[in-house]
Amino acid sequence: MAELTRSYEKYFRQNRLPHLWCPGCGNGIVMKAIVQAIEKKGLTQDNTVIVSGIGCSSRASGYMDFDTIHTAHGRAIPFATGIKLSRPDLNVVVITGDGDCTAIGGNHFIHGCRRNVDLTVVLFNNNIYGMTGGQASPMTPLGGKATTAPYGSVDRTFDACALAEAAGATYVARSTAFHVQHLTDMIAQGLGSKGFSFIEAMVQCPTAFGRRNKFKSPAEMLKWMRDHSIMKAAWDKLDDMKKGEAAGAGKFPIGLLYASSGGELDYDAAYDQVIERAGGAGK
Amino acid sequence: MKKARLMQGNEACAEGAIAAGVRFFAGYPITPSTEIAEAMAKLLPQHGGKFVQMEDEIASMGAILGAAMAGDKVMDATSGPGFSLKQELIGYAACAEIPCVLVDVQRVGPSTGQPTAPSQGDVMQVRWGTHGDHPMISLCPWSVRETFDLTVQAVNYAERFRTPVILLMDEMVGHLRERVELPEPEEIQVYPRRKPKKTRAEGYQPFEPDEDLVPNVADFGQGYHIHVTGLIHDDTGFPVGSPTVTEKAIKRLHEKIDRAADEIIRTESYFMEDAEYAVVAFGGTARTAYEAVKNMREQGMKVGLLRLVTIWPFADKVIEDLARKVKGIMVAELNYGQVVHEVRRAAQGACPVVLCGKYNMKSFEPVEIEAEIEKMVMDVEGGRA
């Protein structure tokens, strides 16, 4: 039998593995999808920086063999903004979680989208605060159980993709840990898209979310993703009433949800014009 | 002949930053520091640098730390509530050893306080505002020209020690306009970004301390594949949950500054040769204290002024020596009493230390300081202090 090719292994710091994530966690799937997307787009380990916030997802940066920075809770996008503006030649990938990106970092997220800095932001959405043991996040489903929502969450959830699009992100996609190849493609397209690219990756958290919300196993959570996701093309064919019914049943579209027609300048390109108008030369 | 200019303290700060090589500034408007951001927005693109107005003070602090890791010299400026918001990432910069300068142009607090009125109420927040054990370097100018010089110095210290440095200004100096002659670029000493001394093949470790205990952390994009974190880490940069590593890491952060403290700590003395009483002051208040002391000298009173140029690390030895020489020390500061406690600690009981504080939106008048000096003298001579 031919040996499996594992060309992506070079993108990991082997001496930092195994990772700290729980058995059955989906974070490793997304982390692998990111490096495979990086490989697919031909980015190198020397010209790519991985920036993460705080939380389970954000520990990924430590395992990835690039220049990496594990920043403060919610602040990955501001750090990434500084890195990209300082060194526009570097590819900057942000790894964040639902709490990190949409709660404590929510304002940075929308302003990152608005500025259209050329970043690729991958949100690991596990619907919960995993690192601290299962508290409700802004993406815990309405009625979902969490240690801080023992009777079910009464907070409505964000649709992070709709938020990104409304705030000005120029590439917005969603996929899941079940759809590994699709997820990799969505991230790769985001890496290739100039401007602020946002990819929501749904991941299973069996420990902090699944076991409190009637999922008997990680596999059941993956099956739930399979059964509740609808490809964008199929979703678009639904009329508004059907979309409402689908959403009411917990279904959601995956795929490329929004891509700008390319009219906007990304922030670096816009700033080059500022430097030109100011009569400035190189640093 | 050098060209003299009429310049504001905040503008001089921006000019100093450019001269020191700052090429990235992220900021958020807040009185009375806003002119620094405005000047940087104008100057930076002219020098190929970038200014970004971020969505809040936390974001601007994050952006400068990112840019610093990517190789730029960086600065940010704020005041009052904004300074409070930045505290978490000041600690991040201390722990991850990222060079950066933060300017705090003090205004009256707590909270929104009195946004346009002068104060010197952030001295302790500069030192202890972020959580955990960390060292701090903070410089405090009293004139427009010195604001320029100390901004350059602040950037140099940030780069040399790979640590956050806080330029502690106050509204009086920030909004003061004076005639200044700025030095020529060739007269300005600029500390370059530290570079790795080993290759990866030679076993380079990004947080391995050099002889001065400061690590030569590679900038991003140099092929070193370094990891940076605000978790306590060892020389490799990766987090370690070890008591030994934690103790060593926290100790080194302090020792790299402590070792150079004598060089960093700068004070200036006026009329001190035969002084029997001393005023200790800093920033804008030191200007008024200088006037007061000069007036009293003219009346034949043996009083002098010690000005703290470096606020942190604190000038313990200088104060201790001073306390042994004089009969009494008065600390004039525009707050309810902060530096006075440090002076009292450093004086170790060698002489009485009293406070001349003010917190009513107004800066000191020389006569107020003179009256308090007279009171101190009477109390000491009368055995009441």
What is this structure's SSE topology?
The complex is a heterodimer of chains A (283) and B (385).
Chain A: H1 27-40, E1 48-52, H2 60-63, E2 67-70, H3 76-86, E3 91-97, H4 98-104, H5 106-115, E4 119-125, H6 160-167, E5 171-176, H7 180-192, E6 197-202, H8 218-228, E7 229-231, H9 232-237, H10 240-248, E8 252-259, H11 267-277
Parallel strand pairs in A: 1-2, 1-3, 3-4, 4-6, 5-6, 7-8
Antiparallel strand pairs in A: 5-8
Chain B: E1 4-8, H1 9-19, E2 22-27, H2 34-46, E3 50-53, H3 57-69, E4 73-78, H4 80-96, E5 100-108, E6 114-118, H5 123-128, E7 137-139, H6 144-161, E8 164-170, H7 171-174, E9 177-181, E10 227-229, H8 243-258, H9 261-264, E11 267-270, E12 277-281, H10 283-298, E13 303-308, E14 310-312, H11 316-325, E15 328-333, H12 339-347, E16 353-357, H13 366-381
Parallel strand pairs in B: 2-3, 2-4, 4-5, 5-8, 7-8, 12-13, 12-15, 15-16
Antiparallel strand pairs in B: 1-9, 5-6, 7-14, 11-13
CATH class of the largest domain in chain B: Alpha Beta
Which shape of chain A, going by the Cα principal axes? globular
Please give the radius of gyration of chain A in angstroms: 19 Å
Figure out the total of helices of chain B.
Answer: 13
What structural category do the secondary elements of chain B indicate?
A: alpha/beta
Mean pLDDT of chain B: 97
Domain unit count of chain B: 2
Strand content of chain A: 15-25%
Measured between the Cα atoms of the first and last residue of chain A, the distance is 55 Å
What does it look like?
The complex is a heterodimer of chains A (about 280) and B (about 375). Chain A has about 280 residues and is α/β, with parallel strands linked by helices. Chain A has one domain: 3-Layer(aba) Sandwich (Rossmann fold). Helices cover about 35% and strands about 15% of the residues of chain A. In chain A, strands 2-1-3-4-6-5-8-7 form an 8-stranded mixed sheet, sandwiched between helices. In chain A, helix 7 links the parallel strand 5 and strand 6. The model of chain A has no long low-confidence stretch (mean pLDDT about 95). In chain B, strands 2, 3, 4, 5, 6, 7, 8 and 14 form an 8-stranded mixed sheet that branches. The model of chain B has no long low-confidence stretch (mean pLDDT about 95). Chain B is globular, with a radius of gyration of 21 Å. In chain B, about 55% of the residues are buried. By secondary structure, chain B is α/β, with parallel strands linked by helices. Chain B has 13 helices and 16 strands. Chain B has 2 domains: about 180 residues, Thiamin diphosphate (ThDP)-binding fold, Pyr/PP domains (Rossmann fold, 3-Layer(aba) Sandwich); about 120 residues, Rossmann fold (3-Layer(aba) Sandwich), CATH 3.40.50.920. In chain B, helix 3 packs parallel to helix 4 and helix 11 packs across helix 12. Helix content of chain B is about 40%, strand content about 20%. The chains are: A alpha/beta (about 280), B alpha/beta (about 375). Chains A and B meet through strand 2, helix 3, helix 5 and helix 11 of A and strand 2, helix 2, helix 3, helix 4 and strand 10 of B. Strand 2 of chain A pairs parallel with strand 10 of chain B, so a sheet runs across the interface.
